[in-house]
């Protein structure tokens, strides 16, 4: 009976060792603070109506940013723990983590950074800016978008759930290679948590990708042919096409792992005819394209930034787009380079090696494209541009080492070494993360209505760049010296420790960069009025997102623009404004169904993790009921009257006019608050608080 | 003025349907890729019976052929139902789709019969890799059939309740696409799993 009711759950599942207690308590404390604050401010209803149930892609985008940002810190703490262990654990000293705990941390670090940081932030950017760039008011299916977001949240909760119940995460590496991830070698719940968090959020990704393909292909403003679409929209389209191509493979592969673990089948086991290498093939067929899914929108971001801050159109737009298409196409046929050592014959390895090397060609086309855009441009070195320059240098290193690793004989030497770890961090941090940061600082005025502090932003960029090279150059060297990845201990005679210590210092510099980014946002909020973006076009932009007010109104465009050229807004700026003619706007209504379905999806996963079968079955039935109710609900839209649109547009214009008159706004950033000023300000504020108490 | 507004609204609806229909096609392609994985897995594992009986010894061709014919016929009646829906005839929709439902149910019954027989003889999906891949490939298709049947049932209930509104015709359109899709997948299963065992 007890087994039927609560499956494998028991009091032993509650956290009891120090790390689990510390982590779960800090999560609970964080939750209590937020809960208390919202209750104190009486904002629950507002939060539910305006944010959680919203179908506005802009609000969903912001929620992606917030969750992704928090997860970046969560995954960053993991990273520093790993670095600290490696710096300490040499010779007689075994560091402060057990081998098992260390393995769980690097697994969680990988999962969180790829799924819940990079994917989240990329989806946030796409959500917010793709509709604005293509002149659309919302997405093809607003409901699928909120559903995708909440499934992602269910995945986030699932990946952190082991802190509270179970006390162990998968100790298998981020892709949980078979047969290690089978029941035989990983009997605990860690792999189950891994599996369900990826499964649930992965299905959300597929749904989101379908939605964006519909939106980009079917909802562009009149006159915007595919050849007139901004590069970021192109990058997003290609990325989403790749996502619908490979995420189903992930879903099915995880489904098979689930069958192996739950029903005792033999897909990837070592006995009864199972084939473990098939798992490696399947997971990398998804896993390799996945990193390109992340990088393509980032490429798009850089194209936008380089063109805007050079004051000229992107050089050879068509080769830029063709370059991205080339990357997206080739990326689907290179997965085997992750396991040249599998023992496939030389021809197979040669094929995949050559395909991998070929990717360097379209990628270089893009890089030369950006350089050609810079040439003869009027370059403004704002923070987004600094991120770009950081990207260009780090990504070049990542690309070159990638070509080295693509040569099978070289790979036999470097396989699973720290050289590889340094390589993919160069591409993922230098490429994806820098792209996201560049995009966020570039588009921040559109999101918040004021731009970010320039001075502190520059410090943050430099910390990231310097920290990166400090942290990862030693890893390249260590890899060449023979250090394998995922080491929790090494002999003192190897002489590796100094390199690991330098690497740790580098990671702390990166951490300082993150702290500066947080300070930058706080300082910008303090100086909000001074940094206000009154025109909606702070950078002298070229694409449609800059043609609307900052922050963008709920309906995006009061009047859907007509596009005649590649740089739609640049052309519009030259023309005299026409008298606007407003029309009624149809907008989707908010819905909580996405939240309910995701809640049940979470409970289903939870039920399967702990083998509480009734809970899983009930949750599946509940999801079906939710879908049916949503599917047959015809009342999903409301209309904004033309006169209300006009009123809102007028009111905003008047407000901004008043602001321009009262304040002389400076846009060059030289006037922004510096770090010392910020510290002084915080100190005086704290001081005054103390004094008031006395 | 009001006529103009109604026209505008209809246009808005039509655009939105066009998009969602396109999205549904994309979804079907993702589903097809999932089946693609299962087919690949079956291709790799179907000889790994580790001393157990092989596909030829286990499968019964007449059973599979009957199932195939049932499913193909159900696709045909589903098409007839769609013609009825486009004509706006509730009677035709209800009758043809009910036939589709019954044929689908019969197909499912046959499949379950085959599965229970195999399991009864001790050929469960945990016996060996070949049986694992067989059960999961065919079973996933069966799972799709179950959800299709459930979907059909719900739509028919709503057709009775609300009549054949344009949105209901659209929903029937999605369903019939899904049903034909399952038919196509089954043709491949019939070929790769059953026919191949006997050539």
What's this, in brief?
The complex is a heterodimer of chains A (694) and B (199). Chain A has 694 residues and is mainly alpha-helical. Chain A has helices spanning 2-6, 18-40, 44-52, 57-88, 99-134, 142-160, 190-218, 231-262, 276-310, 317-330, 346-374, 383-405, 408-414, 418-448, 454-481, 497-526, 568-574, 593-609, 613-631, 642-662, 675-693, and strands at 585-588, 637-640.
What is the distance, rounded to the nearest whole angstrom, between the alpha carbons of the first and last residues of chain A?
61 Å
Q: Give the overall shape of chain A, derived from the CA principal axes.
A: globular
The CATH architecture of chain B is Up-down Bundle
| CATH architecture descriptor name of the largest domain in chain A | Up-down Bundle
Describe this structure in words.
The complex is a heterodimer of chains A (694) and B (199). Chain A is an all-alpha fold and 694 residues long. Helix content of chain A is 67%, strand content 1%. Chain A folds into 2 domains: 1-42; 43-540 and 547-591 and 633-693, Up-down Bundle (Cytochrome C Oxidase, Chain A). Chain A is built from 21 helices and 2 strands. Chain A is globular and about 75 Å long. The model of chain A has no long low-confidence stretch (mean pLDDT 93). Chain B is mostly helical and 199 residues long. The mean pLDDT of chain B is 93. The chains are: A mainly alpha (694), B mainly alpha (199). Chains A and B meet through helix 7, helix 8 and helix 19 of A and helix 1 and helix 5 of B.
Descriptive labels:
heterodimer; A: 694 residues; mainly alpha; Cytochrome C Oxidase, Chain A; 2 domains; B: 199 residues; Four Helix Bundle (Hemerythrin (Met), subunit A); 6 helices; elongated
